[in-house]
Amino acid sequence: MRGSRRRRSTLVVALALVAGLGATVPAHADDPAYPFRNPSLTVDQRVDDLLGRLTLDEKISLLHQYQPAIPRLGIPSFRTGTEALHGVAWLGETTVFPQAIGLASSWDPALLEQVGSAVGDEARGFQQERPAGWGLNLWAPVVNPLRDPRWGRNEEGYSEDPQLTGALSTAYGEGLTGGDPDHLKTAPTIKHYLANNNEWHRTTTDSELRPRVAKEYDEAAFKPAIEADAATGVMSSYNLVNGRPNTVNPDLNDLVRSWSSHDLLNVTDAAGPGNLHGDQKYYPSVMEGDAAAIKAGIDSFTDNDADSSVTTGAVKSALEKGLLKEADVNEAAGHILSVRVRLGEFDPGGGRYGSIDKSVINSPAHQRLARKAATEGAVLLKNQSGTLPLKTSQKDIAVVGPLADTLYTDWYSGTLPYAVTPAKGIAAKLGTDVATSEGVDRIALKNTATGKYITTGDALLKETAQTPTAPAQFDVSDWGAGVVTLRSAVSGKYVGYNWSGFADDQTQPGGWFVQQQFKLEQQADGSYLLRYAGYETEESWWTNPVYVGPTGADGTLGLVSKEQAAHYTKDVVRSGVDEAVAAVRGKDAAVVVVGSTPSINGREGHDRTDMGLAPAQEALVKAVRKANPKTVVVVENSYPTTLGALQQDVPALLWTSHAGQETGNALADLLYGDANPSGRLTQTWYRSESDLPSILDYDIIKSDRTYQYFKGQALYPFGYGLSYTSFRYGDLRRTADGFEVKVTNTGGRAGDEVVQLYTHQRVSRDKQPLKQLKAFQRVALKPGQTKTVRLKLSPKDLAHWDVTRSKWVTEKGTYDVLAGASSADIRARTTWKVAGETIPARDLTRTTRAENFDDYDRTHLVDESKERGTAVSAASDGAWLKFGDARLGTGAAQFTARVAGSSGTVEVRLGSPTGTLAGTATFGGTASPYTYETVTADLSRAAKGRTDVYLVLKGAGLRLSTFSLR
């Protein structure tokens, strides 16, 4: 099978001699004459040679994230997993590029490849020192489609569209690899396979994927980078898909490896293997879980941090018990070694990229690239009456808001080598100081019972002050969903819980446990309870909500129950709104920078429960707008925001992600017209959370998710973004390999247009997208300039997954082909008659998998066995499956099905779930949901002709895997 190579467990010297690998046995194990150190040999030859020299224990040692050195062969240690989503993370100061969602908003594959190349260089830059946590196997990019904007990790992905995601991830990956799969700069691993788009109970929630959704949507985002050799493997995700944990998803071997002709190194997410016998309870022991993961296609275990003994011990036990064979270990070790060979590890001098050193890190060229990326990724959402760009004569301005003079980094960010904030960038642009204000209240909290204020100045916060002096004052910032942060007015640092008490010791909210989160809960008497909200989830990380109150005789604050919580008055020492209004009044313009901190209200482990802008921030914008009509709002966050009435109230809106060290310079360039906004949204911006179904509903087709199926009115549609110039589209014409359209810059400024090509299938056997992106191209145009934009599109690009025959099919018919500036702004269109095929009526005389239904109600997709396969389970009595347009001919006499689990019946009905009853099969149940039995039922004479067949399942928990009507 393509991409899978069963390797020999030993190397016979005689065979090596015949192959010309060397005529003598080297005197030392690390002698360069050894074949595995010979770069003139093929990768397979080198790997086979090295595998043959390793003992079984040494091969097993390679299967953990922390691979030890093998001194006798001169092989150094190796580690999988350096984070590199938008720069090298966790190793200190590196170039910090915009978040992945910001990079993607450029719609510029060439830029993504340049950024990927820079990140790859910087990863190599550490190779001479090899600091803890460093490695050349990079865990990036994230290619999970952004199907739900409430996902806590939205910032890590690219788009809700798999076509765009695939194009951008391929470009970024090609930059990381260097473009030659046999000589890798770095070895990127794309994550998280598969259907991983919620954080709520992420290790136990089940993403149910019907075949069409799996093939057309989730898998489609992963395949391009693997197929293009722009990634060297995938990371399995925490969640389950159709009842089976992704750590043992057979796709890893059966499907993902088929996409590449090169060996892939597949890894688990951190602690993923332990979940199999832990909270997932899928296997009874580490041994059985690890063995199953290897057989499914996992090569490297990320578990128990640096302690590899649990994994290696489990693998050895599995070998002893016969759950694994040495060939299984050889296969996994061979995949790992293939990547290490291709990284040049065993080449003289470290291979093609072995000389790169730290001089590349945060180089001037990378700083310029970071500024370009931050500029291209910003999206102009609104520009009423030419509010933007500002004129250089508008120098007397104010930059206000909670993000006006600070930059925030996310969990997977590197350390900023410097920080150009919006205020600093604009000041540098104008060559003069600008007025600033965070616009947040400064408060003091007084215990109503004791009259004492919470104060700083000692190791831990205490209630000591009798008056609200500076040590008793805190800046309170609203980040939405009721969460606020408190920052000491004296130290300028954030207050957080440190497991002993509360201290003002953090420069920014952050860490895995974000312990700088609070909620001020107003009581009926006007007082407030200070609730500790550090790392709360929807169900609370703590057993019960906890609050703040004095717990020591000296007034030291600690965690208490609600009943024990102190009641505080909130004394406003300084009004943030008043200060901001004073700063902007009479100015030439006001720039308000609002948004999020990536550690709060949406991050790994915590989905967003509120899609709106923080109420205090919205109030700030309204007040500033009232004080100065020339107000420009910059929204700096990691996801779509509902924005409420704000979108109507302000004349100009510009969105940016947390865009890294050059954020301020990029914003200044855009606001003052030195750069023309050219970013486009890669997600639908909804008007309300009510536009979305449950975050756990993964069936984008049935639930009408994303721009492809959403029938409502978006706040801003997929692909949207404004420019300071205008563009005219000519006619859309068919070419030999696609379509072309002439685009003219009809405005007075140079600008980039992102030409987007969509299709719509007019008639189909199956429900089709309203529109579907098929190609795009970013084109730069000077004023008055016209360019012909050519976009490739072939009939096979129109294919969808035919569940009746489990194959890709392009249907015969007429397709609308649409070119435009967004999914909702179509400027040119034509039709295309495609000579495809007609999907025939279903042949249910053949054994049909139950998962290949056309519609369903009250069912679940479940694991047919622990190893592979998907079955359908009744969630409640009366669940049904539709198998449309079935050809029963002159009559089907018998219904046969494979069923398991709870007892019940399977009714065969015609035309509808309550239509003519053609037969009923009765099932007595099996002790195990994985033990299947065959049941049959005689069918009435009505079971004939061409009709829709419904299977109605009576009995919750009854499982159906396959059936036929003959």
UniProtKB/TrEMBL annotation:
Q: Which UniProt keywords apply?
A: Hydrolase, Signal
The answer to keyword Signal applying to this record is: yes
On the tree of life, the source organism's domain of life is Bacteria
Recorded source organism is Streptomyces aquilus
Provide a Gene Ontology MF annotation, just one: alpha-L-arabinofuranosidase activity
What is the annotated role of this protein in its UniProt record? Catalyzes the hydrolysis of a non-reducing terminal alpha-L-arabinopyranosidic linkage in ginsenoside Rb2 (alpha-L-arabinopyranosyl-(1->6)-alpha-D-glucopyranosyl) to release alpha-D-glucopyranosyl (Rd). It is not able to hydrolyze alpha-L-arabinofuranosyl-(1->6)-alpha-D-glucopyranosyl (Rc).
Biological process, per Gene Ontology: arabinan catabolic process; xylan catabolic process
Q: Which Pfam families match?
A: CBM_6 (PF03422), Fn3-like (PF14310), Glyco_hydro_3 (PF00933), Glyco_hydro_3_C (PF01915)
Family indicated by similarity:
Belongs to the glycosyl hydrolase 3 family.
Q: Report the residue ranges that make up the CBM6 domain in this protein.
A: 846-966
Q: Which InterPro entries match?
A: BXL, CBM6, Cellulose-bd_IV, Fn3-like, Galactose-bd-like_sf, GH, Glyco_hydro_3_C, Glyco_hydro_3_C_sf
Using the record, list the residue span of the signal peptide; answer none if the entry has no such feature: 1-29
**What's the protein called, per UniProt?**
Exo-alpha-(1->6)-L-arabinopyranosidase
